[in-house]
Amino acid sequence: MNDTTPRELDQIADAAAAASALLDRTDEAVRAGWLRAIAVALDAQSSMLVGIADDETALGTPRLAGELARTTAQLRLFADVIEEGSYLEATIDHPNAAATPPIPDLRRMLRPIGPIAVFAASNFPFAFSIAGGDTASALAVGCAVIVKAHPGHPQTSASTARIVIDSLREAGAPEGAFAMVSGFDAGLSLVDHPAIRAVAFTGSVRGGRALLDRISTRPDPIPFYGELGSLNPVVVTASADSEQGAKLAAGLAASFQLGVGQFCTKPGVVLVPHGSVLERELPQHLATQPRMLTPGIAGGFAGGGERVREVSGVRVVSAAGDPGDGTSPMVAITDVATLQANADALLEEVFGPFTLLVRYQGDAELDAVLDLLPGSLTATVHSADGEDVAALVRRLEPLAGRLLFGGWPTGVAVSWAQQHGGPWPSTNTQFTSVGATAVRRFQRPVAYQDAPDAVLPSALREENPLRTPRRVDGVLVTP
Asked: For this structure, is 56 an active site residue?
């Protein structure tokens, strides 16, 4: 796959800008049809796409088939979201001369912001890539999309892009509604291009920080929606460890080794009581994993492991035997004092099959660890039935966007209530990149004051022809 040239990129961006002007005025039912058409086409080519992706990533047919099914489910969810209509946040205040100050006729709703640059992820060649959640949510609300392909799976990307483009064309979408570019320089130029109105990125903190810094130098800085690194802390209470430590060890092992640990929701730091059953039982569940996605990711994993090994007071347990062409998972074990003295080294994400066990003794040490933790996508509590963990939950709420109880964070449902985003550095946004409200990233509010009914969007017209859910004079009205 050849790198996109500067001239090609300009043409693609100009076409996206022209398409966005048309998408902006396209009815929800029409755009929903486009999304469903893409989903049908991807499902029809599932065997071909999965085969190509497995050759490039070695993630395995079952995992990739499931991921592609998730991708088409996302497209269908966003089709449902825009047809339901509440995503517009349509709000009407009728005139009220008696109010202080007087209220004119005000009608407010969310509008698409324009062409979006999406940076595909390495670890999800379908669900967070060419036709993934960022693309689906942006197209849904009426924004053209230009995806920068990830070099880790170029043929998968090219094949998926062809299907998306062909599906949109056959469904009647305007030319330029979707495109793909390739190459490092093309990605930077895409961020710089004046047609681009927002950037969505899934990747490392370092990569995201570089893009955010570059965006800040634009003459017109634009939103950056980055899903970045995440430790996803897990707290195991003493009672939970006593009752089910062996079961928790098996669950943790399955979660942090899933997909060779290349999940943004991998549990990367686990707080366990001193002398825990979980710590004792965990090593028996370690097993050599398949190769990692790219040599760069494998090198980063090895380097992170070495960084942790060099810290005095840390014991590292790995899978037995020579991993050969695979990857040997690692469990690092330490105490609170060592973590406090080496937080920079131990609390930097190690992307891959790695987790850090931190032994704590009592609430004071547990609180000391929580004080050190950066923002994460998730935080998990394992407690005994009936155990009072309200105080612990209050401590964890500021640290993560999704709190789990009795489960493991790998696996992110695609639904209306999902939240996939937390405090920096896990993301740099208050929004989610998974679930129905992911569309909110690519919209901006516009209010119309004393506007003639004929110029208003359908959702704000008095007769409400599309039967859109609205808040009218402070009252939520669902037709």
From this structure: no
